Amino acid sequence: MLQWLSDIFWQERLWFPEGLGWADLEDRDGRVYAKARDLWVALPIAFIFLILRQIFERTVATYVASLLGIKKSIRRNADHNPTLESYYCHSSKYPTQKCVAELCRQSGCTEKQVQRWFRRRRNQDRPILIKKFREASWRFVVYLFAFVTGLVSLIDKPWLYDLEEMWKGFPTLTVLPSQYWYYMLELGFYLSLLLSVASDVKRKDFKEQIVHHVATITLISFSWCMNYIRAGTLIMFLHDSSDYLLESAKIFTYAGWRRTCNFIFIVFAGFFIITRLVIFPFRILYCTWVYPLTIYPPFFGYYFFNGLLLVLQCLHVFWAVLIVRMALRFLPQNEIVEDERSDRDETDDSEEEDERNGEIKKNGEIKNNYTAHSSNNHRKHHKTH
Fold first, then answer.
1. pLDDT value at residue 105
2. What is the C-alpha to C-alpha distance for residues 42 and 76, in angstroms, rounded to an integer?
3. CA 293/CA 280 separation, integer angstroms
4. What is the pLDDT at residue 373?
5. Residue 374 vs residue 194, higher pLDDT
6. Among 90-99, 238-247, 291-300, which is the least confidently predicted range?
7. Which residues, 6+ apart, have CB-to-CB distance to 182 below 8 Å?
8. Structural domains present in the chain
9. Contact present, 249 and 339 (Cβ < 8 Å)
10. How is 214-282 classified by DSSP, letter by letter?
11. Mean pLDDT lowest among 64-78, 274-288, 308-322
């Protein structure tokens, strides 16, 4: 059964132009071609990336954070309350006014205490600032490394300057060592991102990120197997050219360097729009969608490859809208750039008042809005360090 499915999936008429096939990609005369089995190398590379990330975040990123004055924030955790916890986990994190009234009746808490409990409970689920800084620092280093690697591997290649050169001699294009390692490192990194997505900072575009990672991994793998390597290296290099700028802007945001962050964000926005909304659709997509039809008739692999590129382009438009919205908001007021995808901590306007009230004794001891006779039913608020 598996062999039958494999034979159907790897049919030459699906993945090659008419008259060409797998036999054309057999190594001969010292010429080495890409093989599907080469992709297994990306799995151990992905796990190496995960290990390196843990080491980097706990040492280098933490040390840099301390130099920039970023410390682990202290939050007030929500008191243990089975009734409120059950509602939070199974119903909603943002109860309506009607539900708050019902929860007050069930838990014996006041409306103010219930609202404060939900604010603190939501904050517990949000990543702390230093976690965001560590993650941004790791991605900055990797994206910058990927950009430099791509530049070194492409700087002397003719298809970097004349995109039509990417199809010269297709599909019998030999694999160079620089292309091999560029591909495997990129594929390993995106596999590591997909494996760690559950523990990474959750943002509002979480689903779009999953789609992006899956489409990128599929695109890299497919372009390798079908020997679309020249097109693949150009696409990866184009994406790497701006990603490290975004991560560096996040780093300075978390460090509180407003002017530096805003300047880098403007540069990033310019690079993103030029590379993703101009060069990618009008140059790359043209040379993968229109130009190949002058060389060979369309086939399934042609449509599949370009279909994945269109998915990426849709994501580019989605993210471009977010970037423009952020730019329009902070430019007139010179405010600090905030990542619209991130969920920010909620502040409790009554915290200071609660602390003062906790020190007052009137008609019995009062601490954090709890009277002495009710302290047996409710736990006192405290700070966790």
1. 83
2. 42
3. 18
4. 37
5. 194
6. 90-99
7. 149, 150, 153, 233, 236
8. 51-67+130-330 (no CATH), 76-127 (1.10.10.60)
9. no
10. HHHHHHHHHHHHTT-HHHHHHHHHHHHHHHHHHHHHHHHHHHT-HHHHHHHHHHHHHHHHHIIIIIIII
11. 64-78
DSSP assignment of 294-359:
GTS---HHHHHHHHHHHHHHHHHHHHHHHHHHHHHHHTTTTPPP--TTBPPPPP-TTHHHHHHHTT
Q: How confident is the model at residue 217 (pLDDT cuts 50, 70, 90)?
A: very high
Percentages helix, strand, coil for the chain (3-state, rounded to 5) are 70, 5, 30
Q: Are 146 and 185 in contact (CB under 8 A)?
A: yes
**Averaged over 196-214, what is the pLDDT?**
74
Q: How far apart are CA 129 and CA 205, in angstroms?
A: 19
Q: Which amino acid is residue 366, in one-letter code?
A: I
Predicted local distance difference test score (pLDDT) of residue 268: 92
Q: Which two tokens stand for residue 112?
A: 């103010």
- Distance CA(295)–CA(379), nearest Å, equals 75
Which amino acid does the sequence have at 250?
A: K
Residue of 276, 284, 280, 189 whose CA lies nearest to 228: 284
Cα distance between residue 100 and residue 120, in whole Å: 15
Beta partners for residue 203, in sequence order? 342
Q: Is the pLDDT of residue 26 over 70?
A: yes
Look-up of token digits 């010292």? 30
Which residues, in sequence order, are CB contacts of 286 under 8 Å at separation 6+? Answer: none
Query: Residue 16, CB half-sphere, CA atoms under 13 Å: how many?
Result: 17
